[in-house]
Design goal:
The chain is of the alpha/beta class. It contains nine helices and eleven strands. Strands 5-4-1-6-10-7-11-9-8 form a nine-stranded mixed sheet, sandwiched between helices. A hairpin with a 2-residue loop joins strand 2 and strand 3. It is globular and about 50 Å long.
């Protein structure tokens, strides 16, 4: 596989305006995410953004940028647009959508995100973590997954995603992590299909992929990456920046 990592970033965000430019420690959020993508060391990394402020910041840091239409409706659309501009000949056969709000994600987890694509029957790969806390299980902001186990206990096939607790009365539930690896054709098919009825009902775009017949397999990982979505998250990130970075660095040296 020949993966291309694309980090979608947009300047306007309702809960945290100009989020990609927000400082965490000594650098903006988008540069933390860019570093994590580069440290995964699995391929070229591009920031797909909608504003020259982000583009200039990334370029000054030595990163690659692709400016995309600011009216694009989602991160997936932005990722597809950037892939089409950067690689019109489609030399990259796997496109990894690395969310631009995960400053401390372990680079190894990014590698795990496309591991399920080693199965040629899988169209899209994503991640999940076992969900133990009852309060989080019942939190509708956390997407859960119903899956069927395969031969590899760390990789399961997704049957459905929901904001409700699924499967009902199961012993183990899973928290979905919104990092995706797409086969190139699967991404093209996905973005050219209109939002589906289940997607609109649950407000989870991955349901569109399932409704149109794309197979999604899920790599189980150990922890949910910290995300910056609100001013409170940004404040918390200032406390966590050194702890999180040292944590995965120490693990990589073990």
């Amino acid at each position: 596989m020949n993966p291309l990592i694309i980090i979608p970033a947009r300047l306007s965000a309702s809960r945290l305006p100009q989020k990609p430019l927000a400082l965490i420690g000594d650098k903006p959020l988008i540069l933390h995410v860019l570093e994590r993508g580069l440290e995964a060391n699995i391929g070229r990394v591009i920031v797909a953004c909608d504003d020259e402020k982000i583009a200039s910041l990334v370029k000054d840091a030595g990163g690659e940028v692709c400016l995309t239409d600011p009216t694009l409706p989602s991160g997936s659309d932005r990722v597809y647009a950037a892939a089409t501009i950067i690689d019109p000949e489609e030399n990259y056969d796997v496109i990894i959508n690395l969310q631009g709000d995960m400053p401390f994600i372990d680079p190894q987890v990014i590698k795990y995100s496309f591991e399920p694509l080693q199965n040629e029957n899988v169209d899209i790969a994503t991640l999940a973590v076992k969900l133990e806390d009852e309060e989080r299980k019942n939190n509708p902001s956390i997407a859960k997954i119903a899956m069927v186990e395969g031969k590899n206990p760390n990789i399961q096939q997704a049957l459905y995603f929901s904001r409700s607790v699924i499967p009902h009365r199961a012993i183990t539930h899973y928290h979905h992590i919104g990092l995706y690896s797409y086969r190139r054709q699967a991404l093209k098919t996905f973005v050219h299909h209109p939002p589906s009825s289940l997607e609109l009902a649950e407000k989870l775009e991955q349901l569109r992929a399932l409704e149109i017949g794309l197979r999604i397999d899920v790599r189980i990982v150990d922890a949910v990456p910290f995300e910056v979505n609100t001013p409170e998250d940004l404040e918390e990130s200032q406390k966590l920046v050194n702890t999180f970075r040292n944590s995965w660095k120490d693990k990589s040296l073990a």
